[in-house]
Amino acid sequence: MDNWLVPADREPTALHEAMRYAVLGGGKRVRALLVYAAGQTCLNNPAGATAVEAGLDRAAAAVELIHAYSLVHDDLPCMDDDALRRGQPTAHIRFGEATAMLAGDALQPLAFEWLAEMPIAPALIVQAVHTLAVAAGSRGMAGGQAIDLAHVGLGMTQPELENMHALKTGAMLEASVMLGGIVAAASSPQRQALRSYARAIGLAFQIVDDILDVTADTAVLGKTAGKDQADNKPTYVSLLGLEPARELAAGLRRQAHEAIAPLGGAAANLAALADFIVARER
């Protein structure tokens, strides 16, 4: 991905430096790993493996671009107003608000440029572009963030909270899994299994985030711990309590394993990622 990004010394240099800072500054890369794991699980035609692998590279990089842009914008003063991300100053602290906003704006279309360059069937490229666009937009991540901002300081029921996070967090995780399946030309049963798996891990991921916000410290998280509680945001911990939230995450991990059981041993990496998502400490 480093080689695909515009060099930092090309004009406008501040913008390109900020884009690279946002994308290459670390992180778990869970979304990219999900793309690869799903694609490798569903590879039905070994003869086309080279093209699929190249497509997976582009798709994995694309979801990381969307994720990076969303973090840059989420950290802005008009959103979550955070000064720390991945153990480093957030983009607007490092480069200023205007450049950070433009960096996020530029990363988003670049993701679709990279999807368009995948060496796979045009019909599959269209499916991939549509999948990522819906997940990132008002019916996905951006819509979930809007609901989140509108409910600061307000109570939410568990179904309302689940709906918000299915959009804000789950949509992009689901898109990552489905993109892997699309690039590999997954069959209908394979896609159904992937979608069920993705919805379980998407909710589990957010529950664990909520748990870590109250149990981990800033140095481990790489971002400000306790911020959701300080901002009076509804979370699974505030709604259910710490132990029930942990039990819910564990149950979702089991659901994820059950969903991909029909895919057999080829889904071992997806199973391992479900385990990681629930057991992680940051």
TrEMBL record:
UniProt signal peptide: none
GO CC terms of this entry: cytoplasm
Pfam families, A to Z: polyprenyl_synt (PF00348)
Domain of life: Bacteria
InterPro entries referenced in this protein's UniProt entry, alphabetically: Isoprenoid_synthase_dom_sf, Polyprenyl_synt, Polyprenyl_synt_CS, Prenyl_diphosphate_synthase
Record key words, sorted: Isoprene biosynthesis, Magnesium, Metal-binding, Transferase
Record GO biological process: terpenoid biosynthetic process
Molecular function via GO: metal ion binding; prenyltransferase activity
Co-factor(s): Mg(2+)
Cited SUPFAM superfamilies: Terpenoid synthases
Assigned protein family: Belongs to the FPP/GGPP synthase family.
NCBIfam families xref list: FPPsyn
PANTHER family in alphabetical order: FARNESYL DIPHOSPHATE SYNTHASE
Protein name according to UniProt: Geranyl transferase
